[in-house]
Design brief:
257 residues, alpha/beta, two-stranded antiparallel ribbon, single chain, Rossmann fold, oxidoreductase activity, seven-stranded parallel beta sheet, 9 strands
């Protein structure tokens, strides 16, 4: 699918991987619907992108809110061709740690945002994509979901986070098969240790230590590299039902604590 002229909805689009992807899509001639909770950052980015960007405040865990926003996107743009799910919540907590037993809310909040939030947007957007006029290859839409290498290499304390990312990986193929006759592709990206604003809150020596774990190149991943991969997935019609690691060859080991 050509990015130019496409309508692309991006959750978590006001910062981090989502923001960089939004900028890349707009630069390639696509129209971006920036979906995020952060109204200030979202509106500022939309203003910067001009005619190629619009902001819609959204909590992806709220089903009715997602349906309403997709309706607003249809009203403004007529349709949606691509969704990129970048909204997510990280963090690490043991089930039984120094602060006691993990609150159940810690687990359910991550499921609600990371996994259910991803499915929510697909569920709301897919029927609209099905109405699109197919291109010469019969393609009507693309769904790109953000998982993590934690889906396979989860660390101690990541039981909640890793399980949500594993769920995202697991849904790619069933959804790709379900939407095959509709010309809608479904892919997942599994980032490794990425240089995002959230990770940047760590001390420099921690970031340096993380970078040294990556085989090559021995550095943190760039959000621009995520955006480039997302753009390639959109334009490469033969990529479907698969999950791609974006991690410099990193395989996280067992770090006993």
């Amino acid at each position: 699918m050509d990015i130019k002229g496409s309508i692309v909805a991006i959750t978590g689009g006001a910062s981090g991987l989502g923001e960089t992807t939004a900028r890349a899509i707009a630069a390639a001639g696509g129209k971006v619907a920036i979906l995020d909770l952060n109204e200030e950052r979202g509106k500022a980015l939309a203003d910067e992108l001009g005619d190629n960007g619009s902001f819609f405040q959204l909590d992806v865990s709220k089903t009715e809110a997602v349906e309403t926003v997709i309706g607003k996107i249809k009203e403004q743009f007529g349709t949606v061709h691509v969704i990129v799910n970048c909204a997510g919540l990280g963090g690490s907590m043991k089930i039984s740690g120094k602060k006691g037993i993990m609150p159940m809310e810690w687990f359910t909040t991550r499921v609600d945002i990371n996994l259910i939030g991803t499915f929510n947007l697909i569920r709301a957007a897919a029927p609209l994509m099905m109405e699109n006029t197919p291109n010469e290859e019969g393609e009507r839409g693309v769904c790109i979901n953000t998982a993590s290498i934690a889906a396979f290499d989860g660390q101690i304390g990541q039981s909640a986070y890793a399980s949500t990312k594993g769920g995202i990986v697991s849904m790619a193929l069933p959804l790709a098969r379900e939407f095959a006759n509709n010309g809608i592709r479904v892919m997942s990206i599994l980032p490794g240790i990425m240089d995002t604003p959230l990770l940047a809150k760590n001390p420099p020596h921690i970031l340096e230590s993380l970078a040294k774990q990556v085989p090559f190149p021995a550095r943190l991943g760039k959000s621009s590299e995520f955006a480039k991969l997302a753009c390639h997935i959109i334009e490469n019609t033969y990529l479907n039902g698969e999950s791609i690691r974006l991690d410099g060859g990193l395989r996280m080991g067992f770090n006993r604590k």
